[in-house]
Design goal:
CATH architecture of the largest domain: 2-Layer Sandwich
Order of helices and strands: EEEEEEEEEHEHHEHHEEEEEEHEEEEH
Shape: extended
Radius of gyration: 29 Å
CATH superfamily of the largest domain: Chloramphenicol acetyltransferase-like domain
Largest sheet: 7 strands, mixed
CATH class of the largest domain: Alpha Beta
Distance between the termini: 70 Å
Structural class: alpha+beta
Number of domains: 3
Length: 397
């Protein structure tokens, strides 16, 4: 005798309440075992693979690829012997197996995932069989797709009048493509909208001579982002007001002791913000290593929700996109974001003489509730001085 066991979308953690189905790894009738990955879903934080906590035969798949499932809704029904297998731990939080084994999160193209739950696509109607070269040319010259024409001649022959009728037919109304806001894109939209509606932000900026920074990069052997991270952390130690958030419910400013430094990174899922935890406790080389590790995870699409939450301040090197400046939106609920533009050769006055130097623009967007312009300007000026003279910050480290 078999019993039907229902596996529901488990608690996602991090306040997440739903996920989009990317695709199924199994089909109805397949046999599954404990801890076998059966579905890949995308939350607002990451794409993850979900294991099933019992074994048996797949009886039903409840969700199609592209659908959004809330926590607690059924995913899969499995017919198994009287009770669930007890070899697993039952830990079915997204991204974790039910055994004590390494987690796997592989980002895969949606088109490559087999979607057993999805309905079969309708058959594509074949193009007309016969058409004369002259009629074909007439259609081509007028931008008419032969496959869209219904032939009226015998044996599916497309006649000249068929093409002329298609030419005379009014063009359909222009309608843009509609793309659902789901997964990470929706999370980004919600977060940015909330930031704009809740945070009274202000932006200040300054042009700086980054020649010294570029020289230091060669000597130390790390990237510009790592050096900027080191400088930002040093700046927050001097201006702790900026390493904070505003608790609107309790009307309090919360200052953090640890600097959890977020940084913008490009991935195939869009712009993500991995977080270097306790950046204030890391050396410059350790910061560089952690930035490299998280950047590689972002590019591979394997960042976990934990990798992208808990930030207290964000660094954005938008100069990699070839732009000089920006007025970015603060990464809610943080209180500040430092942006770095591209570093280019420009004329610059040095000791009264004109010279060609490596110049960049720094922009600082801050929550005006946590500080006034004096603090924000002091922070930005300190960061700029460190960029121009990296040895400046050594005295405070």
């Amino acid at each position: 005798m078999t019993t039907e066991q229902l596996f529901r979308l488990p608690d996602l953690g991090e306040g997440l309440t739903e996920a989009e189905v990317l695709g199924w790894k199994v089909a109805v009738g397949d046999t599954v075992h404990v801890d076998q990955v059966v579905i890949e879903v995308e939350t607002a934080k990451a794409a993850v693979e979900v294991p099933v906590p019992f074994e048996g035969t797949v009886l039903k798949l409840f969700a199609e690829a592209g659908s959004v499932v809330s926590v607690g809704e059924p995913l899969i029904a499995v017919g198994a012997a009287a009770q669930a297998a007890e070899s697993g731990s039952g830990n079915v939080l997204i991204g974790y197996g039910t055994k004590d084994e390494p987690r796997t999160r592989r980002r895969r193209a949606k088109a490559a995932v087999a979607t057993a739950a999805a309905p079969a696509a309708p058959a594509v109607e074949q193009a007309p069989k016969v058409i004369s070269p002259l009629v074909r040319k007439l259609a081509r010259d007028n931008g008419i797709d032969i496959a869209t024409i219904t032939p009226t001649g015998p044996d599916a022959i497309v006649l000249r009048k068929d093409v002329e009728a298609a030419i005379a037919k009014p063009a359909p109304a222009v309608d843009g493509e509609r793309i659902p806001l789901r997964g990470m894109r929706r999370a980004i939209a919600d977060k940015l909208s909330r930031s704009r509606s809740e945070i009274p932000d202000a932006t200040t900026w300054v042009d700086v001579d980054a020649t010294g920074l570029m020289e230091a990069r060669k000597v130390i052997g790390v990237g510009v982002l790592a050096l900027m991270a080191r400088i930002v952390v040093a700046g927050l130690a001097r201006y702790p007001e900026l390493n904070s958030t505003v608790d609107t419910e309790r009307q309090e400013i919360v200052r953090f002791k640890a600097v959890n430094l977020g940084f913008a990174a490009q991935s195939d899922r869009g712009l993500v913000v991995p977080v270097v935890r306790n950046a204030n406790r890391l050396t410059t080389l350790e910061l560089a290593a952690e930035l490299t590790r998280l950047t590689e995870l972002a590019r591979a699409g394997t960042l976990t929700p934990e990798d992208m939450t808990g930030g207290t301040f964000t660094l954005n090197n938008y100069g990699v996109f070839g732009v000089d400046g920006s007025t970015p939106i603060i990464n809610h609920p943080e209180a500040g974001l430092l942006g770095v533009g591209r570093i280019v050769d420009k004329p610059w006055a040095v000791d009264g003489q004109l010279a060609v130097r490596k110049v960049t623009q720094l922009s600082f967007t801050f929550d005006h509730r946590v500080c006034d312009g004096g603090v924000a300007g002091g922070f930005l000026r300190y960061v700029a001085d460190c960029v121009e003279r990296p040895v400046t910050m050594l005295g405070g480290l």
